[in-house]
Amino acid sequence: MLQRITSEALSGLTVAIVALPLAIAFGITATGTSEGALVGLYSAIFAGFFAAIFGGTPGQVTGPTGPITVVATGVIAAHGLESAFVAFLMAGAFQILFGLSRLGSFIRYIPHPVISGFMGGIALIIILGELDQVRQSFLLVAVTIILMLVATRLIKSVPASLIVLVAVTAALPALGSLLESLTVGPVPLNRAIDYIGEIPEAIPAFTAPELHGAALGTLLLPALSIALLGSIDSLLTSVVMDNITGTRHRSNRELIGQGLGNIASSLFGGLASAGATVRSVVNIRSGGRTAVSAATHSVVLLVLVVGLGGVVQYIPLAVLSGILLMTAFGMFDWEAMRQSRVAPKGDVVVMFATMVITVTVDLTAAVAVGVVVSLAIHAVRSRQRRASVVRDEAGVHHVHGPLSFLSMDHIFTMLRNDEPRLSLSLGNVGYVDVSGAKALLAFIERSERAGVEVSITDLPPHIENRLTALANDEQHERLRGALKSR
């Protein structure tokens, strides 16, 4: 037990180190001022702690994220920071209502191409938002990115973002004047180097928001938008966690935890938050499996904030910009883009349409349009809405109907059992989309890790070709093993 707790605490410390520069960067981006550093940090501290304790995804780390920051930036610009805190509180209340109404269960019906397009759109928004800083301090941003790439390859035990943040910040006083003097022809590579500036060093204080009827009316739609986006963002991260750990999160409890986290964050002057994919994966890879590690991450950040201001003020904004750009690049579903030549054309259209609408219109609208288009494509390609599973006397599980985003959760939930072998007949599957193919490949992988041997029989040639085309190298080997064992 002591060893388990120690492992969880160390994992939380690692995640806190990763979260520190990201929380600062997202906070400054949302508010447009150096004071935003504390707004971002308070978000990771309070939303992170309460979502960890009351959420439904063990080990998931909550804090400011790219999607939430994009929406929060608009709310702060339109209504001011104090009113934005009220919107964040209202968003948390909406999320609790979503969880109590069991709306979290619908996450299983969001198609994979919509997820890929949504995350790609968010990445583009972050990149576009950093262009001004890139133009102002191009060389410093470029150096940050290059050093992060090198550090990622050479040093595995310490997060690259922390290494670069400390190294560049420490070296800049000696190199700052040199960087500002470098030019390409008449164009300076660094017009100026801006810094975060001093932030107050104090224990966060509870502040009750001032609620007025007229103001609440104008904040209703922004709050609902934050609640919807934060719920989708968090539950998508929960799905990623499920794929890594082989477990199943509790969607509705997760929404309640996220709601409580956003309420707590708003009451202490923090940004709205959501489940953070990168930080959650770091937690799992570092050994964190329970709420202890995620909560520890928040406690460590609180300890740092109490005496952090004197150090943080010297961090260059260009370094944070480089870290954000690297985060954005990592958000793209590069595998889905590479596979667009072999994926169903309808799914490719959905992915890029979702991405474009995310950038040009609205984040929530992009997901809604992507799901509606996916439903229309499914209706054209298959007359059956969902598939079913029938087990015969020989113990073979026969799947009947389309293997798609509408049926994959139902199918693979029914196929979970404690037997050492599982025989799966797909002879009556006439249609498979990207979501269904990815779910089947992930199911084979999870089964193998659990010690269950999966054999697939009666696989139609066009289904086999699609699975082979969409599988990565490791999944391809597992698929071949399942087909050979039939």
Describe the structure in your own words.
The protein is an alpha/beta fold. The protein contains 21 helices and eight strands. The chain has helices at residues 2-31, 36-54, 66-79, 81-100, 112-129, 131-136, 138-154, 160-181, 213-245, 251-267, 277-285, 291-306, 309-312, 317-331, 334-338, 345-360, 363-381, 408-414, 434-449, 461-470, 473-484; strands at 62-63, 183-184, 187-188, 274-275, 388-391, 396-400, 421-428, 453-457. It has a four-stranded mixed beta sheet. It has a two-stranded antiparallel ribbon with strand order 1-4. A hairpin with a 2-residue loop joins strand 2 and strand 3. Helix 5 (112-129) runs antiparallel to helix 17, helix 7 packs antiparallel against helix 8 (160-181) and helix 9 runs parallel beside helix 11. It is globular, with a radius of gyration of 23 Å. The two termini are 42 Å apart. The model has no long low-confidence stretch (mean pLDDT 85).
Name its key features.
two-stranded antiparallel ribbon; 4-stranded mixed beta sheet; 486 residues; single chain; 8 strands; alpha/beta
